[in-house]
Amino acid sequence: MSELIFMDFVHCNKALTHHFSAFVFGNADFFNSIPSLSHTFHFRYFQGELKEIYSSGEQNPINMSGYIVSALVPIVFTLLLRNAKKLKKRGVPVDVGGEPGYTIRNSRFPSPVETSWEGITTLAELFEQACKEHSDKHLLGTRKLVSREVDVTDDGRSFEKLHLGEYEWLTYAKTFEAVCSFASGLVQLGHKKEERVAIFADTREEWFIALQACFRRNVTVVTIYASLGEEALCHSLNETEVTTVICGNKELKKLVNIGGQLDTVERVICMDSEFPTSASYRWTVFSFADVESVGRTNPVDADLPVSADVAVIMYTSGSTGLPKGVMMTHGNVLATVSAVMTIVPGLGSKDVYLAYLPLAHILELAAENLIPAVGGVIGYGTPLTLTDTSNKIKKGTKGDASVLSPTVMAAVPAILDRVRDGVRKKVDAKGGLAKKLFDLAYSRRLSAINGNWFGAWGLEKLLWDFLVFRKVRAILGGRIRFLLSGGAPLSADTQRFINICLGAPIGQGYGLTETCAGATFSEVDDTSVGRVGSPLPCSFVKLIDWAEGGYLTSDSPMPRGEIVVGGPSVTLGYFKNEEKTKEVYKVDERGMRWFYTGDIGQFHIDGCLEIIDRKKDIVKLQHGEYVSLGKVEAALSISPYVDNIMLHADPFHSYCVALVVASQHAVEDWASKQGVAFTDFADLCEKEETIKEVLSSLVQTGKKARLEKFEIPAKLKLVSTPWTPESGLVTAALKIKREAIRKAFSQHLANLYAS
User: 91-112+413-478+480-614 domain in CATH 2.30.30.240?
Assistant: First the structure.
């Protein structure tokens, strides 16, 4: 059997066979060691036969060598490829203008990419070209709602459950027709070119159509998260002087609540065909379908933008205070779209993309402009209907991924963490042989990915994929071939789990709204973890010294410093906020625009970036919420039990923890009243009831200060010894030295997250 399997290989590689024959026969010790390589499936299979042939003294060296070559060549090639990967330069130094630093560009592109399509300079042109090239092909898909039910639990809580059917599709031609009709409809309603439209809704088919329609009339779109609070919503609409808002029923209710505070809104277009009619509306309300219909019967010619025109003013979720609007030109977004196309392997018309992330986020907006450009398909879903076990999916019915079977997806770490945790819970619940088999398969694949050449490759990999991981891959439809992760750091554990169980590479990206998500991206063949890849083809990434924090480009073994991003994806700045724009945006003597991120990074020898710190004390948690450490510390220091406090937020967790220097007087007074016995103050600070009391006080203090739940520490460590300038933990002005405290209490912080 083995002879038949490898016959063609042997006959086609006679020269190679003879070289290996000479080596093996001249090195009996090496050959005798081959059976010990039986850790892999291949060698277990051939071990007995190799021994038998060798000991029999068979005189057919070609046949015998064939077996040897068949076993050795994959090993040698694997080692050669692995060495090649280690030596591969993904990013290379480049000479640029601006502030001195250490700058890296993508190794394959000597200058930043602005467009990947000849003659295309705007998103409107890109979409029109795609619709002409793929007119009869499916483009946008939305699932039909079969039924809506309410489940009531034993404790009286109610949950909405949806039964969703198959996807219903619009072709490229029909989508383009809808876009043109809606664009004409806007004009007929009285919306002028110089006025702005806000899209305030969850991701859905109508969102995309409205976006492209605005582009055809060169109308700037203000994007607002559907989850944005009333104060931030009011600020965003008033600051940009929006006259038309496009939203869903849920968002319409929010608008009604703040109607009296909106200065410029004249009309609202509701994406849902049925919406509450009310005499209290301060504006005219239209249905999305009616606007399309009016435009269809009264067409208006397109008024296309140029590259430098502002396509989107994107309001961030706001790290502190009110959100800022980032102004993105068509050229900015097109540069990111063009760059991503060059690094996603084989992206084309056979790809199916599952869209469920907020389109008000640049990651999703860029993705949904890229997929049509390559002739792909977009099927819409939601985070709550994504899988068969998602919260809103009726039991026994299918989630979005199962029905759509996507090939590519964008994801945030929180979603991937849920997939990982869900799989592990199911495996643990089954126990027995099933769990042992899963653990064995996982450990074998992990060994292989981590560079152990005795790990599970070849036929053994196929075996584990069929027996174990095929069921896991079915969770996301069974056809995922590439995942793009962004928005927050992805933990090494989750990255490896997804690599193995879904059998797909994860491209982890780093970027900001201010850079149109364009900065760095890990390549498909880079199996390392904890890094965010080399610069995208549209970007230069520079590190500059931050002496105050101790990060220098001259550091060894790697240059370190603040990350500065330059190139065509860097946006114009903040809307009506010139002061902040001048603070973080710079134009160098060569005319290149740079954005100062405030993040601290280091470059590895292959040109890949690793994020290691944050210049400011603002941290993004695992689910994307921003925490301003200083703001929270100031609010919680009011608690009578707090002498000093340092909040700690880890991007790989969804909650904060705190180190609290306890006020000895207040804590001992409480203990005396409660009858809590203790030997000394240090002993009192270790007691569970003391920690519980102080934590309760912080929760109450935080609520009074109107802090969000995620801003209030979930756990804390009580410190009995005051922080002083002499200890090096605070400055002479008694301001905390965050990095010094973090190092001094690193084990305590680790224990808080581990417990």
Answer: no
